[in-house]
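Justification of computing resources. Each target in the renewal requires a structure prediction run like the one illustrated here; the chain below, 238 residues long, is used simply to show the kind of job we budget for.
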Amino acid sequence: MRLRYSRLQSVEEKRNLRSTIFFAVLTLAVLVLLAFVGIPLFGKLTVFLSDLRGGNKIVSKSDTTPPAPPKFNYVAQFSNQETLNVSGSSEAAAVVKLTFNGKPSEVLVDKDGNFTFNLQLNEGDNNFFAIAVDGSGNPSQNSKEYKITFDNRPPALSVNSPTDGSSFFGSNQRQVTIQGVTEADSQMLINDRLISVDDAGNFQYTTTLNDGANQFIVKSTDRAGNTTEKSLTLNFTP
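Resulting structure tokens:
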């Protein structure tokens, strides 16, 4: 009986030894596999399991999409004001960077997507454009380039004929033509009637005189809004 027990014990010990050797070799093989080819896969598996544990957690991604170029509201091509505000719209919370006459400045776009710049104009032509930079640092393409001409001098205006205070007599002289010259591209008004101006600034207006004194207001307004005005009185006796 005792001999039989010894044999069983010996067999069990050999079986345990073989199992121990097998698992030791298997463990060593797994370690070698991880060391040479399995670490990246192991890392990906770890991340995957972590994402699964995270459930519905939102994973943020880097924003690489640039915003649209900023858009400006109406910008006048001519101005007689030395200080001018220009406004526009862009992506909310972006920074609009303006290059005005070669000098940079910037403003933050408000939550509604609006922005405003205050410009100090130089005499003559003033040029500017802008870009938008979003919160991730992505710059937009350049906006349209604008030019504003600052001019605060009133336009030249002369009435060449007839002269102020002239008198006319009889039915043959009742109709007269007022002629003169002003700045080209100006708007001409005579007694609030629009008069055409040619490329050289010449204008003329034919009218019929009433009996007595006839008062004419000749007014020229250039593209920047500057105005020159002259008064002309013509007398008529039937």
